Amino acid sequence: MAAVTVLRCSGRFMGRLICAPQFRSCTRGRFIRSDYILNKPSLKIGQQRRFFRNTPVAAGQVLQFKLSDIGEGITEVTVKEWYVKEGDTVSQFDSICEVQSDKASVTITSRYDGVISKLYYNVDDTAIVGKPLVDIETEAVKVGALEEDVLEAPAVSHDEHTHQEIKGQKTMATPAVRRLAMENNIKLSEVVGTGRDGRILKEDILNYLSKQTGAILPLSPTPEIVPPPPQARTAPLQQKDKTLPVAKPAVTKPVFTGKDRTEPLKGFHKAMVKTMSAALKIPHFGYCDEIDLTQLAELREELKSLAESRGVRLSYMPFFIKAASLGLLHYPILNASLDDSCQNITYKASHNIGLAMDTQQGLIVPNVKNVQMLSIFDIAAELNRLQTLGATGQLGTSELTGGTFTISNIGSIGGTYAKPVILPPEVAIGALGKIQALPRFNAKGEVVKAHIMNVSWSADHRIIDGATMSRFSNLWKSYLENPASMLMDLK
C-alpha cells in the first residue's frame, strides 16, 4: 500500500507496471528495486517523484554542429559534397562534408561521437559561418548519483536501440592517426586497417598516402586513344570510306531548345569578382619583351631524363620561377605589398611565387612557398603536386594564400602577348606566351632556328616605375637566355 501511495499512479497503470518482488517497466527494460524505494530514508509518503523520462532525452543529447570560422575573413561557403547522411554514425575527426569558399576547398570533420540526425544544407547550398551545419545526437549522458538514475531513469525504445546497433559501425583509430588523416585530406573509410579488429594504424595512412602520391604523376598528359567499337571494325572498308566524307552534322542546322538560366556566383567565380574589382583600383603599368629560350630548351632536354628518374616531370616553369626569384633578390620592391591607405610598403621576406592555373572550378592561383630556398628540382616537384591537387579540386587554403608575386602561363593554352591583372595585395605579375620556333639572326648574321617566347609584365605604377620593371625583366631574361648565369647567384 505504501508503494502505491508513493508512486501516485492509477490502479490500471500500476497493475501493468508492478511485478513482485521488483517494480519494472515491461516494455523498456528498466528495473527499480522495491526495497530501494520503500527503504530510502529521504523518501516521504505523499511526496511526488518522476520515475521515467521520455524517449528524446534518453536517446542522448542533440548537439548543433556549427560551421566554425575557417579564417581569411570568410563568412560563407558552398557545400560541395556530403560524406554522411541522416542516420549515419560518426566519430571524432570523421569527415562530414567538403565546403568550398572563394579561396579554397576545406573538409569539415566531426568534433563529436554520435549519430547524424539532421543535415541543414543540400549540395551547392550556401552555408553561413556560425550557423548550424548538422545535428549530431550523442550518446546518453551517464549520471553519477544513484537516486537520479532511479528517479529520473531515461527510457530508450527498442526501435532506436536496434537502429543504433545497425548503423553503429565506427572506424577504429587513435586521435593521432585521425589527425594525420585529416591533415592529408584522407577519408578513414577508404583506408584498410591492418591492426587488431581492423584498427587503422599510422602505417596504413602512410601506405595509402604513398600509393596516392605514386599515382598522381602521369608520365604523359596525353589522353588515351580509345579504339573504335568492335562492330565498327567488322564493317567493310569501302562502306567506312563512304560514310566519313558524307557526315552531315555540320550541314544540319541545330534546333535551339534551351532556356536562359540564372544562378548565383559561387566559389572561385565569386572570388574572381571580388579580386578583380579590387584590382581596378590599381594603376597598371605594362611592359613586354621577347625571350630567346634556345639554350634553355637544350638544357631542359638534357635534364628531363634525370628528373624523370627522380619521379619529377620537368617543364620550363621551374626555370621561369627560379629566375624570377633571383631577380626579386635584386629588386625587392616587386615582392612587396602596399597597404589600403597607400602609406606603407611591406617588403616580403619569402618569395611565394604564384602560378595562375585554369581548372574546372575556375581560375585559381596556388603558390610555391619560399622559392628563394628551393632548387629547380624542388620547384618542379612542388608544381607537380599543386597541379595534381588543382585538377582534382583539393587545393587547400595554405596553397592558395600568402602569394607575393605571380606568373601566368597563358601560353600553355595559346597566345603570345597578354595584359595580366595584378592580384592584390601583390604589386607585379607576369604573363608568358607560347614558345614558338621562329627564324632569328645569330651573332654572325646567320638565320637560325630559335625558341622564342614573349612575356608581358604588369606592375603597380603607384610604387613601381617603368625603369625598375624594365631592369627586372632584363635580368630575368638574361638568366633564361643564358641558364648557366643562374649558377652565379644560386645559394
Q: What would the principal axes of the Cα set say about the shape?
A: globular
Oligomer classification: single chain
Main sheet: strands, sense, barrel: 8 strands, mixed
In percent terms, what proportion of residues is strand? 15-25%
Q: List segments where confidence is low: pLDDT < 50 over at least 5 consecutive residues.
A: 1-58, 141-168, 214-228, 232-242
> How far apart lie the N and C ends?
95 Å
How would you describe this protein?
By secondary structure, this protein is of the alpha+beta class. 31% of the residues lie in helices and 21% in strands. Strands 12, 15, 16, 17, 18, 19, 20 and 21 form an eight-stranded mixed sheet that branches. Strand 13 (336-338) and strand 14 form a beta hairpin. The protein is globular.
Key features?
8-stranded mixed β-sheet; 491 residues; single chain; disordered N terminus
